[in-house]
Amino acid sequence: MRLSGKKIILGITGGIAAYKTCGLIRLMVKSGADVKAVLTPNASNFITETTLRTLTKNPVYIRQFDEFEWKPEHVSLSDEADLFIIAPASANTIGKIANGISDNLLTSLITVFDKPVIIAPAMNCKMWENKFVQENLSKLINSGFHIVEPEQGELACGYEGAGRLADINKIYEKICEVIEQEKFLKGKRILVTAGGTKEPIDPVRYIGNKSSGKMGLAIADAAYSFGAEVCLVSTFKTQKPYKTIETPTAEQMQRVIPEKFHGSDALIMAAAVSDYRAREVARHKIKKDSGEMSIELIKNPDILDEIAGIKSSSQLVIGFCAETENLEQNALGKLEKKNLDFIVANDVSREDAGFESDYNAVTIIDRETRQLQTTPRLPKTEIAKIILKRVFSNYDVPAKNL
Ligand code: PMT
């Protein structure tokens, strides 16, 4: 039973395809899921509460202020569910979700829901092609929603085109796939680094870089949510539900990583480690009245290089590559030179992605095929998931925003 013990919210919006969800409920329930139906007020024009209550064997939720218990429904239902599927999803509801509008129970629920969401749109073909509907849909995709695209065919409104709710077997498969993928890193131990090192010059000054740590944190969070045992080595203090170690400098990081790598399945090195540090660190603040100042710099250890040299054949080492020119060529060079399994290259000259931004656009190259897979610009939280799926489940990076 692929959905055994899983709690699923089925959101139904106002559209003729609402009746098809009866078949979907039967598939989910037969597969072991506990399904609760949440309807928009318009949906009850197309399907009855009695039908849904009988099929799900649960109360049906429509009105925002029906109180089944002390907690508001949009909070309690959301807390307990593993997945939210909206089928059929109308243009109206897609638009509301994409713009943070929560004016009924279903849209309020989705606003607080922080687990996987699948949207199966169904509407007239002209509505489906409408520029604003497509823009809203892109917003949802970019925020990590899964979409089961509507199919071509004869529509209830008499038109012929794309807009028919996808086949319920296809929607059911997507639900199983998303649930199964949620914990695809269970049993893996993953070591992640994040942030820019700070190499001291004196007690108040340091050599640093623009890394905020957002990319590394997103990878650690995603690996944890996919079921991995995570250890995050970051250049700053952070509190997480998984193990974290603070190492502000390259030398401190170098002391920690080999020990933690032992027993890990993979190292993902997203930190921007300074290549140089001051030979001498002044014990007291250097006074500016001594005129010009020069600092002698010495090379820092290359942590990735060292780890790639000691790794066993079952361990994976994934490096990042921050470049401002010749991205692919430089990334391939580093993959080769540092003997990495994967390299993730990002162009840090971009203003809308890379350092400090919440967004990134990366090219992932694997050692075996040397194939380049490039993502669109996406939130780092999404880039993190793509990297993990590419590395651990041989997933092909989506070439466009789908
Ligand atoms: O932190 P954010 O603001 O979110 O930005 C993310 C990022 C741009 C920092 C991140 O995506 C990134 O590219 N990280 C790697 C930056 C970097 O140091 O690139 P590099 O090309 O100089 O180094 C190549 C690899 O060697 C990196 O994995 C680096 O961690 C590693 N390295 C570098 C130097 C060194 N002494 N030891 C190392 O292990």
In short:
The chain has 402 residues and is of the alpha/beta class.
Structure description:
- The protein is α/β, with parallel strands linked by helices and 402 residues long.
- The protein folds into two domains: 7-180, Flavin prenyltransferase-like (Rossmann fold, 3-Layer(aba) Sandwich); 189-401, CoaB-like (Rossmann fold, 3-Layer(aba) Sandwich).
- Helix content is 33%, strand content 23%.
- Strands 12-11-8-13-16-17-19-20 form an eight-stranded mixed β-sheet, with helices on both faces.
- The radius of gyration is 25 Å and the shape is elongated.
- It binds ligand PMT.
- Ligand PMT is lined by residues 211-215, 250, 269-273, 275, 300, 302-304, 319-322, 334, 346, 348, 354-356.
- Residues 211-215, 250, 269-273, 275, 300, 302-304, 319-322, 334, 346, 348, 354-356 line the site of ligand PMT.
Sequence-ordered SSE layout with sheet pairings:
Layout lengths: L6 E6 L8 H10 L3 E6 L9 H8 L16 H8 L2 E7 L1 H8 L6 H8 L4 E5 L3 H5 L1 H12 L3 E2 L3 E4 L5 E5 L3 H15 L6 E6 L4 E2 L5 E2 L6 H12 L3 E6 L8 E4 L3 H12 L4 E4 L6 E3 L18 E3 L3 H8 L5 E8 L3 H11 L4 E6 L11 E2 L1 E5 L5 E3 L3 E2 H14 L9
Parallel strand pairs: 1-2, 1-3, 3-4, 4-5, 8-11, 8-13, 11-12, 13-16, 16-17
Antiparallel strand pairs: 6-7, 9-10, 14-15, 17-19, 18-21, 19-20
Bound molecules: ligand PMT.
The site of ligand PMT has 26 residues, from α9, α11 and β16.
